[in-house]
Amino acid sequence: MISVAALAATLLSAGIPAGSVCYEIFVRSFYDSDADGVGDVNGLIQKLDYVRDLGARCIWLMPVAESPSYHGYDVTNYYRVDPDYGTNDDFKRLVAEAHRRGISVLVDLVLNHVSSEHPLFQDALRKPGSAYRDWFRWSATPGHNWHRSPARDEYYYGFFWSGMPDLNFENPAVREEAKQVARFWLREMGVDGFRLDAVRHLIETGDSTANTSGTHAVLRDFGQYVRSIAPDALTIGEVWDSTGVLLTYYPDQLDAYFAFELSDGILEAVRSGSASKLFPGYLRLQRELPASRWAPFLRNHDQTRTLTLLGGDVARAKLAATLLLTLPGLPFVYYGEELGMTGDKPDERLRTPMQWTRGTAAGFTRGTPWEVLQPDSLTANVEAQEGDTGSLLNLYRRLIHLRAENAALSSGELVPLTASNGAVAAYLRVGGGRTVLVVANLGPTPLAGVTLSSRRGVLPAGRYRSAATALRVGPDGRIRAYVPLRSLEAKQSYVFELSPAAAPRSVPRQ
Ligand code: CA
User: Fold this and answer.
1) Class assignment of domain 18-112+171-405?
2) CATH 2.60.40.1180 occupies which residues in the chain?
3) I need a labelling partner for 434 at 20 to 30 A (CA). Which of 14, 91, 352, 354 fits?
């Protein structure tokens, strides 16, 4: 029997190198090039050097296709960049400029539903005998998620709200159109892949609105199509669900998915000051799949920002960043998280303009910003943090670059260690002939004499140098009562490489 992991490895996307970090960008809020208060494609081009310096080798752009809303998750034309953001030619230039800097471009693809203003939905809604009638779902009777037609005595289905009628993916014409849209962005616009929105809702069966077998079949077909026309492209899906459910979307559907439970686990660990729930989810995914096929993150555009969630505690935000960027997977960083930007619901406040400078509107626009900035924009901005070696921004930069350069962090195995104190998270990353040790005191008090041990053999026997103490690994390869540092500061993490003091060798036994 072929294992899931073996099958999964054959589907690996070649386009995004191991050790990469992706950066999620809301174009409307990133940088405004023409002073109308709205971020745009040309503005993003001007800030690509910032993205490169951060170390991100891939960007995910929230929807850029034409849409009546500020967020773009309800599309009216899948083949045209929203005029607020620029033109298709501007977008092609963006892709070329990103590629010149070694940055891949993923765009958000919203396939579950369209805008209620989409011409095809309007045609289906109003025109008797419309050819697009079967592109949507209709009912003579009301029900949950069924919305009254403004044109006739009937109801249409929209999982999220009435402004987003669901497409009917049981119709082969709809599945074909989804492929044509993908082909357009890959071939005409030159993108490197897609982040696919709300994919667990593609096909509803009876009362079941998520994770149906029909949905899996659609994704299998769509993923295969993308791989057939663009073998290096990456498809990554939003399945906002448990790790157990996530695993049902492998091995042969999309390439990767966001690992929501891992993100919650990191934040819970730094919030509670306890390492106990950090590793099980990571180890389960590591057992089943290559690390390039699951994507941890701290927060995305639908969630309270990290620093707000952590009550403004920058030390804890640094711990969260360190864990995210030294644990395995393909990490995603939501724009502004690297500055500790704040924000809580409603959604607009999670997506406020990027804070660039100490100047007016934090340097985001020379006009009036489309959304009021966060109150901390005078201090939490790129200009203020750039010169401060201890800033959150510089920590992100160091860790993202380290991850790309160090094979153990890029693709090494995660080996959790047992710490003598439950507030300490400690683990090795082992790979490519290198070993990195991460020790994090998640608690609010300094700790002395914390020891680390491993349950099994993890390293070749020998002596290793580390930051402050020597590590001696016995013939069985196990780590025992290792004191990496005499004291661990409160809410402080340490990342260092374990180098053999001499060539590792087995200790001969007499
Ligand atoms: Ca603009």
Assistant:
1) alpha beta
2) 412-500
3) 14
Has this prediction a pTM greater than 0.90? Answer: yes
Q: From ligand 1's centre to the CA of 307, what distance in Å?
A: 28
Residues designated catalytic: 197, 238
CA 333 to chain centre: 6
Distance 63 CA to ligand 1 centre (A): 16
Q: Are 39 and 369 in contact (CB under 8 A)?
A: no
Ligand 1 center–CA 32 separation, angstroms: 4
Other C-beta atoms lying within 10 Å of the C-beta of residue 272 = 13
462 C-alpha to ligand 1 centroid (Å):
60
User: How many Cα neighbours within 13 Å face the side chain of 126?
Assistant: 9
Residue 314, SS3 per DSSP: helix
CATH architecture designation of domain 412-500: Sandwich (2.60)
Give the tens place of pLDDT for each residue, 302-351: 999 999 999 999 999 999 999 999 999 999 999 999 999 999 999 999 99
DSSP conformation letters of 97-134: HHHHTT-EEEEEE--SB--TT-HHHHHHHHSTT-TTGG
